[in-house]
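Sample 3 of the quickstart, ligand adenosine monophosphate:
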Amino acid sequence: MPARNILVINCGSSSIKFALVNEAQATFPLQGLAECIGTAEAVIHFESAAGKESVKVPNADHQAALAQILPRVEDAAGGHLDGIGHRVVHGGEKFFASTLLTDETLASIEANIQLAPLHNPANLSGIHAAINLFPELPQVGVFDTAFHQTMPPHAYRYAIPGFLYEEHGVRRYGFHGTSLRFVSRRAAEMTGLPVENSGWLVAHLGNGCSTCAVQNGESRDTSMGLTPLEGLVMGTRSGDVDPSLHYFLNRTLGWDLAKIDNLLNKESGLKGLSGLSNDMRTLADARNAGHPGAVLAFEVFCYRLAKSLAAMSCGLDSLDGLVFTGGIGENSAAVRQRTLGHLKLLGFKLDDAANARCTRGVSGEIQAEGSRRILVVPTNEERQIALDTLALLDA
Ligand code: AMP
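Result:
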C-alpha cells in the first residue's frame, strides 16, 4: 500500500491553518495559513519544499478559501488524499477520543457550542466546508479536551453547587490535549519507558500555556479548566486570579463583565505584567536589557509555572520526568532554568550546556547527573491529528 496522505485543518473564526501529512515523511509536503477570512484582505500563504507563495482571496469565506487550498493539497498529495482530520477545541464530556464525523457526531459538537462559543462554531464551519467539497472522504474530529476525560472527579469538579455541573456542564475540561498526548508518548519513546507504566509532568508553553499530570498515558490533572483562561500566566491571559476580582472591578471601577473578560483574556498575562509584549522573545531581550516590566513578567511566569507543576505532581503515582514543549518550552533555556530553580525539592537539576543546546527543534534530555529526567520535546499537533485519522481509517 502506498504511504497515505491526510489533510489536517484547524479552523479559527478568521483563519485556517492546514498541513498535508504523509505517513512516511517526517516533514509536511505542503502547509499554510489562510488569514483575514471574510474580509477584503483575505490571503492564503502556502509553504512547501518549492518555496513560499501568498495568494489574495478578497472576501473569501471558509468554504471559498478551502476551495482554493484543496486543489494544491491534492496536487501535493499526488492526486490521492485519504482523509481529513479536523482540530475541534471543545468535545465536552461526549468525546473522550477522536471520532469519525457523522451527522450524529456533528450534532454533538453543535451541542457543545455554549462551552466554546468562539471556537466550536469556527471549527464547525471548516468541517462543513470540507464535507461539502469532499463528501466522499472520511473526516475525523480530534478534540483538545478529549485527552483530559480520564481526570477523576476530585480533579475536574469545582467546589460550587452540584446543579451547575449536572445541569450546565460547569467543570474543569482542560485543553492542549492533542499536544500533551503527543509529547508524553514521545517522552516515553525517547527514554525507552513503556507509556502504560510511566508518569510525566508536562508543560505546554506557547501563546497559551498549561501543565498536565500524565500517568500511564492518561491525563490525571491539568491546569486549564472550564475555559483556557484558568491556570498559568500566558501571552495575554491572566491565568488564575481571585474569582472575586470580577466583583471588585465592577464595584470599584464600574466595569461590566465583557470588559473584565476582555481584560483577563486579551490584555493580561505577559503582556499585562510587562506593559511591553506578549511575546517571550521580545521579553527575553528586554529582560537582558534590564526592562523592569519584562523582568517582573518573566519572574511571575516561571514561579507560577513551577508552582503549577508541583501541584500537578499530586495527580501522579510515579514521576519519571518533566517535559517542556510549545514555542517557549522548546526554545527558552532561560525559562526552563528559572522554573527548575524553584523545583529542586522535586529532584530536578539542570545540565546548563544540554539546556542551552535544546532550542529550534532540537529535542533531548537536559538533566544533570543524579537528577530526575528533564526533556525538551517539540510538539506536533498536526502529526498527532493525522495519526488519529489514520487509526480511525484502519479501524
Ligand atoms: P507557540 O504558540 O507554541 O507558537 O509559541 C509562541 C511563543 O513561543 C511566543 O511567546 C514566542 O515568543 C515563544 N518563542 C518562540 N521562539 C522563542 C525563543 N527562541 N525564545 C523564547 N521564546 C520563544
